[in-house]
Amino acid sequence: MIYFDDVTMVYRGGTKSLDKVTFTVSAGEFVSIVGPSGAGKTTLIKLLLAEEAPTSGKVMFEEVDLNSLHRYEVPAYRRRIGVVFQDFRLLPNKTAYENIAFAMEAAGQSDTDIAADVPYVLDLVDLSDMKFRFPRELSGGERQRLAIARAIINQPEVVVADEPTGNLDSDTSHSIVDLLFELNRNSGTTLVLVTHDRELASKTDRILRIDHGKVVEET
After folding, report:
1. How far apart are CA 168 and CA 140, in angstroms?
2. Domain extents in the chain
3. Residue 203 has what pLDDT?
4. What is the pLDDT of residues 138-171, one digit of tens each?
5. Architecture of the domain defined by 1-80+190-219
6. Is the dihedral of CA 91, 97, 100, 102 positive or negative?
7. CA angle 87, 92, 94 (to 5 degrees)
8. I want to staple 201 with a disulfide (CB 3.0 to 4.6 A). Which of 4, 20, 32, 100 is the partner?
9. What distance in Å separates the CA atoms of residue 118 and residue 84, rounded to the nearest whole number?
10. Cα angle, residue 182 at apex, residues 118 and 25 outer, rounded to 5°
């Protein structure tokens, strides 16, 4: 499903973020990409989201060569991927319900679908009782579960979780990864967990360890 083929990324000034990276993520897998800060994890995400193009090599998403996407094609492509960020990126002036509904509206979903799907996904992440609360009224774990609900509401083929537990305590971190695990098993959604925490990564099907821009281990 996702293919990085001999990908190198060199930024202006000569900083090499990725160095001949090759790996594959198959449909339905739950894969973690582990590495310290500065290892190249963020660059991998930017390339997968077509925010940047590699200096050399090829990034593929199924049949789509991301290097050849026209600018007007990028928004439609990105709707195939849900992203969960470490800092949540929720809309502060919208309730939990409205945050998810807004994502559906942006994707052109009907009011009927919104009314049916938002309560369903809130229940899925155990936030039904919080639907009228604003992000500031939620705990860190609740905000992250809301961010996951928003990421999956339009049924993306892949969910990328970028350090989703970085601001959470250990117990809450494990519960978030367990929720992602359930999502993967119940819906078959492909999951990519980007983290520096190898203990959390051990719950996934496969671990890619990246360091200094290279994949140095795969388990």
Report:
1. 6
2. 1-80+190-219
3. 92
4. 999 999 999 999 999 999 999 999 999 988 999 9
5. 3-Layer(aba) Sandwich (3.40)
6. negative
7. 130
8. 32
9. 17
10. 105
